[in-house]
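Reopening closed ticket. The problem is back. First fold of the pair:
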Amino acid sequence: MKHKADCHPSELLCPTTQKWVDAEVAKSIIAKESPQHHCCTLHKAESSSSHTGNETENGTVNGTGDDVLVEQIPMDVGIGQPVTLGMLHPEGQALIRPLLLEYAKHAGPELARLCTVSFR
C-alpha cells in the first residue's frame, strides 16, 4: 500500500466521521494526536453559526467537553445492562475516568458514544 501514498492527490477516510481527508493533513493529525495507536478523528468539524458559541460541532461544551463525553460512554461491568460513569461509586469513578478519557481521545467522540466499553 506504500505505493498508493505516492499517488496524488491522496485521501484517507476518517474512521469516526466517515469523511475523506487529504492524506498529508491526515498524516500530520495522526502523528500529533495518536502516534502509537494510529487511530483518531481525522476530519475536524468546522464551527457553524447555528451553535451557541459554547457548544462544539460534536455536541460537547467547550471547557467541559471531556467530562461531558466520559459521562455518556456506556460501559459493561457485568450486571446485564450498560452503566455510565455517574452510576459508579466515587472511588470507581476516579479509577475509571482516566481510562475513559484515554479511550475517547483515541476513538473520537462520535465512536466513543456508540461503542460499549467492557470492564469484565
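Second fold of the pair, where the issue appears:
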Amino acid sequence: MKAILSVYDKTGIEELARALRHAGVDLVSTGKTHQALVDVGLPAQQVSDLTGFPEILDGRVKTLHPAVHAGILARRDLANHASQLAQHGIEPIDVVVSNLYPFVETVSRPDTTLEAALENIDIGGPTMIRAAAKNFPHVIVVVDPEDYGWIAERFSQGGDSTISLEERKELARKAFQHVALYDTAVSRYLGDDADPFHSEVTLGFSKLTDLRYGENPHQKASLYADTLSSGGIVNASLLHGIDPSFTNFLDADAAWRVVSDFSEPAVTVVKHTNPCGVAIHSDQPTAYQRAFEGDSVSAYGGIVGFNRTVTVATAEAMRKVLFDILVAPDYEPEALDILKKRRRTRIFQVSPSNGPSAGLDLRLVTGGALLQTADAIEEEPGSWKVVTERHPTPSELADLAFAWKVLKHIKSNTIVLAKDGAMTGMGAGQPNRVTSVHLALRIAGEKAKGSALASDAYFPFADNIEMAAAGGIEAIAQPGGSIRDEEVIAAADEANVAMVFTGTRHFKH
C-alpha cells in the first residue's frame, strides 16, 4: 500500500505517519512535509521521485502529475484500469492525507497584498483531495487532523480493511466540504463587498460547537462562524456563566446590534430579541438606570448590552436585578469581579464584526434564501420634512432621531416613544399600527406625556395620531407616503402635534 501525505498544518501528522508505516504502508510526501517526516526518522519518498519530475514554479507544481492522479483515481475493481497502471509503471495510491495553504488566515491580516493572497491559493491540494474523495470506495482521504487518531488506530488493528465503506463515504463528504469551504473563501475574497448579489452565491461557515438544543428542546442546533469574518457575538469571549443556548446567542446579538448603532454611550435591555429599554447618556450608570426603567417588568431576566467598558459604578447599580446575559466590549476588572458573583448570568466580551458578511442580512425561506444589505443608512434628521404647522423643538427633534434609530431593531408595526435620550415605551409585533400605539402608551404610562413618537412605516389612518395625541405625545416621525397623508397631517395640526416625514422606513418583519 502507498499513502501520500501533503499537509500545511502538520499537527499530528507524525503520529499518523508512524501508524501507517507500522502497518506496512509506504509513505510519499512533498517538500516540507517530507522534511518533517525524515526529521523524526520516518522513511518517506519525495513526490518528485515518484513522478520522475521535479517540483517547479516555486512549488506551484508538485503533485499535478499522472503518476499521482492516476494512482489515486484508478478503480481497483476494473481490470482495464489496473492494466493501464501497469502499462505506465504507476502504483496505486491508497491513502491521501492533505490540508491546504492557509488562505483564510493570510487574507485575514490587514496588510495582506493581492499577490500574497494569490500565492496562498492551493491548487494541487484541492485537486488531489477531490480525486481521492471521488474514488472513496478504494482510497481513504483525510483532511481533518481530528480524524488522525481513529484512523491510526484502525490501521494498527488491521490496515485499510478495518475502515468501512460508510466511514470512507463520510471522509469523502468531509473532503468535498473542506474544498468547497476553501473555494468559497477564495471567491468571497475576490468578490466585491459592495455588490454581493452575484449569479451564484455561497457562504462559508465553520462549526464552533454543538448547542444543547434550538429554540425548543426538540430542535437540534449548532453554532457556526463565518470563515472570513471576525468579531460579533459568534466570536465573543464568554467570561463567566454556563454555556449559552441558541436563544441566548439570538438575544445577545440583538442587544449588541442595538448599542452598536450609537456613537454615544448607550445601554439597552433586550427581551426576546426586542429592546424593551434603550438610553444614551454620558454617565453609564444613568444610561443603565434609564434603560432599565423603560420597561422594568419586562427587563427581569433580560439581556443588557453596552457599547462602552462596563464600570464599577454600573455593576453596583445593577445589583439585585436578575439578568441572563451581559454584553459589552470590555469590563473594568473590579466590575467583572462584582458581576461574576451572579451565578446565572452569562457575561460576554465582544468586538465589532467585520468581513464580507458584516453588511448582509440572510434569511432562509422554503426552497432557498433571501439576501439583502443590512438596514444601515446615514440619515440627517435636520433634513426631514416638517409637514405640520408646528415645527418640532430642538429637544423634540433629538428625541425623534433617537427613537428613529431604535425602532429599526424592533419587529413589525413598530412604535417607539422616547424622551431625553431614553425609550419610554414601545409597541411591536402587531397586525395593525393602532394597537402598537396603544401598547406603547400603556407601557409608558405617565412617561408618555411629552414624549416623541417614531413609527417604522406610515400611518394609514388619523386614529393613530388622535390616540397618540390623547396620550400626551407632542412630536411624531414617520416615513410618509400614505394616500391619507393629508388626513393624518390635519389630525396632527388639530392636536398641535409636530410631525416630520423622514422619507425612509425601517420596517422589520
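Update: turned out to be a display glitch only; the data is intact. Residues 95 and 258 are 51 Å apart (CA to CA). The chain has a mean pLDDT of 92. Please close again.
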